[in-house]
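Researcher: Sequence of 4-oxalocrotonate tautomerase domain-containing protein follows. Predict its structure.
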Amino acid sequence: MPTITISSPPLPIPRRRAVALRLTRWLSDSGVEPGHVVVRFETPEEATVFSGGLPLEALPHDGTGIHHASVTCCVGPNRDEEFRAGLARCIAEALGAGDGTPFFYLEFRPTSPADVHLGGGRRLHRADRPPRPEPAP
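Model: Prediction complete. Tokens:
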């Protein structure tokens, strides 16, 4: 279950949806079930993230693309370098990170499905096991 957390200046809802759809399509084309893709957006308070001693908001920006973003991707440990590099490119492009972006950080965290629990109904199940049917009332 790939989970992508994007921390950036506020993005309008249509832009967030477009980014989430683009990432879901890329992952789906790479063999991931679309319903297993989770994209989370966070907006840090101003002056809570610094680079080189400066708050990210103070870094020079030419006004094109995203000003700054920090991204964490939790993916299965079986995902190879080609997969991770392709996903990183897709995320950067979807967010509009480019030459004018003064700060873009993307980290992969290999996460075993055995370490992920999902909720469905009244039960939790591990992501590496199918959910057990709930007992009849």
